[in-house]
Write a structure and sequence with these properties.
By secondary structure, the chain is mainly β. Helix content is about 10%, strand content about 65%. A hairpin with a 2-residue loop joins β4 and β5.
Length: about 210
């Protein structure tokens, strides 16, 4: 009896209107991010010869589960890296911040069958893997320490897709990402920073199914 019931559930699921319209797409995007790092910038301002890179490059891979022409669920992974440094006397400190947001979200697309392009809007919630590396360069040698922490965040974005072939589209996207604060050291809260920012991305999308 249980086997027949399981078979019936599978039959109804695979023949439901939502499932029969489902398509799977993958996309790859790259671009630049503006990351103010306000708290860390305030920390650096107390030193001479200190600077932080407010522009960072990133890459993004995304798996799309398209329920119908308007509704889309996605899973994405992103890699972003940023740097800061200060020097004084015979000592230089260099920070490298790396973070990987893993995001699950929803997109709505305004599809018009009479046009080859359409806009979309999305919102996602992220689990963020973060790592900060501090490199000390001085007369007594070079020392490196790492501190890793994880946090939660969210992203909201809007973009445009344009079809250029049967299963291929071009994508342009503007994204705002918020993330929790990152401590650059296990022992200090003074150097805490936040890597939230705005990104501009370009890429392609390919339809698998």
């Amino acid at each position: 009896m249980k086997i027949y019931l399981a078979a019936l559930i599978l039959f109804l699921t695979f023949n439901s209107p939502i499932f029969t319209q489902t398509m799977i797409d993958i996309s790859g995007l790259g671009g630049v991010n503006y990351i103010p790092m306000k708290e860390f910038s305030h920390f650096l301002n107390s030193f001479d010869n200190a600077k932080s890179d407010k522009i960072a490059f990133n890459g993004n891979a995304k798996l799309h589960l398209k329920l119908n022409s308007n509704h889309n669920i996605y899973l994405s992974g992103e890699f972003i890296s940023n740097n800061a440094s200060l020097s004084g006397g015979f000592v230089t400190l260099v920070w490298n911040f790396e973070f990987i947001p893993i995001t699950v979200g929803y997109e709505y697309s305004w599809v018009d069958d009479t046009k080859s392009w359409f806009p979309y809007l999305g919102l996602g919630f992220s689990y963020v893997l973060q790592n900060s590396e501090i490199k000390y360069l001085g007369d007594d040698g070079i020392f490196t320490t790492n501190y890793s922490s994880n946090s939660f965040g969210f992203e909201t974005h809007c973009g445009i897709e344009k079809s250029i072939a049967d299963k291929l589209k071009l994508i342009s996207e503007i994204k705002y990402r918020f993330m929790g604060d990152l401590k650059t050291s296990e022992f200090s809260r003074v150097e805490e920073t936040n890597l939230s920012g705005i990104g501009i991305l370009f890429g392609i999308k390919f339809s698998l199914l």
